[in-house]
Amino acid sequence: MEELKDKIIDVIKQVYDPEIPVNVYELGLIYDIQITEANEAVILMTLTAANCPEAEGLPVEIERRVKEILEITNAKVIITFEPQWDMSMMSEAAKLELGLY
To answer: Cis before residue 83, ω within 30 degrees of 0?
Structure first.
């Protein structure tokens, strides 16, 4: 299961927030990834803001890309705003990329 989860993470890392030149995984927008017994991926994510203009596009793109993984039978992204995203959730790589150090 961990190998499959790593594949999902690799795919998610190819999805970028169009307003920030960092992928959504490194931004800390992905809160959880679960894989069911039927190999369905359930991804819990947030957005940088509740009124984010990409609120509809990013989850759809993530679902589409994750569904392309051969072992995955389906993918569903669930949006949450709890906890609310803030810059402390970004990875060290994302902070470096954005010049926050």
So the answer is: yes
Alpha carbon of 5 to those of 15, 50, 98: distances in Å?
16, 27, 27
Mind listing the domains of the chain with CATH numbers?
2-90 (3.30.300.130)
Label residue 38 by pLDDT band (50, 70, 90).
very high
**Cβ-contact 82, 49 below 8 angstroms:** no
d(CA 82, CA 1): 26
Residues listed for the chain: 101
Burial class (CB in 10 A: 0-12, 13-18, 19+), 24: buried
| Confidence category of residue 53, pLDDT binned at 50, 70, 90 | confident
DSSP letter at 100 equals -
**Look-up of token digits 């030149």:** 21
Angle between helices 2-12 and 57-67 (to 10 degrees): 130
